Amino acid sequence: MRIVSWKLGVRSSNTRIPFRYGRACLTECPQALLQVQFETDGQSVEGYAADCLPPLWFDKDATRDYEQQIGDMVAVISTASEAVRDEGEFGNVLQALAIAEKADFDMQRPALLHAFGVSMIERAIVDAYCRVVGRPFRELLSSGFLYEGQSVRLEGVSTMVDVVPWEKDLTSSEMFVRHTVGMGDPLSTADIQVDDCLNDGRPQSLEQYIVESGIRYFKIKIGNRGREDLDRIRAVQEILQANNVESYQLTIDGNEQYSSFEEFGEFWYAFERDESLQPIYNAVIGIEQPINRSQAFESAALQGLEQIAKQTPVIIDESDATRETCLRALECGYSGTSSKACKGITKALLNRQLIQEYRRKGDRPYLMTAEDLCCVGVVALQTDLALVSAMGLRHVERNGHHYHPGLAYLEEDSYQAVLAAHGDLYEVVKGVPSVKVVDGIISLRTVNENGFGWKVDPRFESYQVVNASS
């Protein structure tokens, strides 16, 4: 297979609710679509990849304004795509990845940003393979077709292992939604001021999501605010108790807001010791990236990790920049990492296998979670769901449907095609296709059946082209 040409387009998109994570507040979020023309065995085929372009996530350099950050994200996608095109023929996904990872990136920008660019061309390649053979992702994965049984050598600090990308098909027909509770999100309906009430037919407060969508998996974001974070968790617990939510589970997202585990431990042990918070403390299944990525592997910052991780898994997310990072994290005492399509498909598959191997040791709990970049359909969301489903993960953070007004960023005359292709995943809300959540669950039937998770014309011609192959 080889790349003949590529184009990168962008459509504007605004959130319905501001999304606060760390120092960022997301109110507008352009949607990027990569269209790649491939040639294989004399056959021409298109492959697509899509994602949102969020501020201060891949690169948390606050000195770069949002316009510069968007330029950086466009640049890494373009650089990775052009590198694979320039190389010519490649035999499988791993060969293409090796080319993309060695692209001429701006080394002053973070490795996680580079990984985003690589992941976009990787997703387009996988999508093209699904089209060439006419089979869904889960079948290509479990058959070994994508990687031809090749193993990948991972090098940690003191360990070197060979890992075969995940080759099992563990898909299920449905998945629990793990609902994000952002730092600025209203918890009770009474918290919403009259002037802030959206009345757009979708839940707005945490309480409304519980009552209307049956959510029982949650992700609570904290911000190194000490007592304020504990009081927010307490308020969440009160909402859960008032609405008789039983057997709920949650993750705590530190969003890189701490400099060390000693600092994070002050919050964590105060949480643990507070008897009134025991119900929600006992429901925590994992802690996500509390330490700033610049310090997450520093020995001084790691003091105290082992004690926490013996009881509650602690995983990395923003630190997960390269193929080897998860192995390095496991060696340092972390419990695993997150799966996000924006960080890489192959990397997620390798990490899933690696974490499974570590679980066999039985020395402490290990964990892989499924996370979200606030992505929306019809390409980005379904691709991420196809990946998560194939790996057998049973709940996934989904916040795109919460912060975005469904697929309102798309042209209205495309709505009917989306509903016809993915009627199990979407429903109409105020005339707009929106993710359907029933009893806290989304359906994956059409995701599992169709290519790389989706089957609809993405209408690239409706996007503004921001870069293309030379």
How would you describe the overall organization of this protein?
With about 475 residues, this protein is an alpha/beta fold. The protein has two domains: about 1-135 and about 460-470, Enolase-like, N-terminal domain (Enolase-like, domain 1), CATH 3.30.390.10; about 175-450, Alpha-Beta Barrel (TIM Barrel). Helix content is about 35%, strand content about 20%. It has 16 helices and 19 strands. β6 (about 150-155) and β7 form a beta hairpin. It is globular. The chain starts with a strand and ends with a strand.
What tags apply to this protein structure?
single chain, about 475 residues, 16 helices, 4-stranded antiparallel beta sheet, TIM Barrel, Enolase-like, domain 1, alpha/beta, 2 domains, 19 strands, about 35% helix, 9-stranded mixed beta sheet, globular
Straight-line distance between termini: 19 Å
Model regions low in confidence, pLDDT < 50 over at least 5 residues: none
Helical percent range?
25-40%
Based on helices, strands and strand pairing, what is the structural class? alpha/beta
Counted beta strands: 19
The appropriate CATH architecture of the largest domain is Alpha-Beta Barrel
CATH T-level topology of the largest domain: TIM Barrel
Morphology: globular
Q: What's the level 1 CATH class of the largest domain?
A: Alpha Beta
Number of helices, where a helix is a run of at least 4 consecutive DSSP H or I residues: 16
Largest sheet: 9 strands, mixed
Domain count: the total is 2
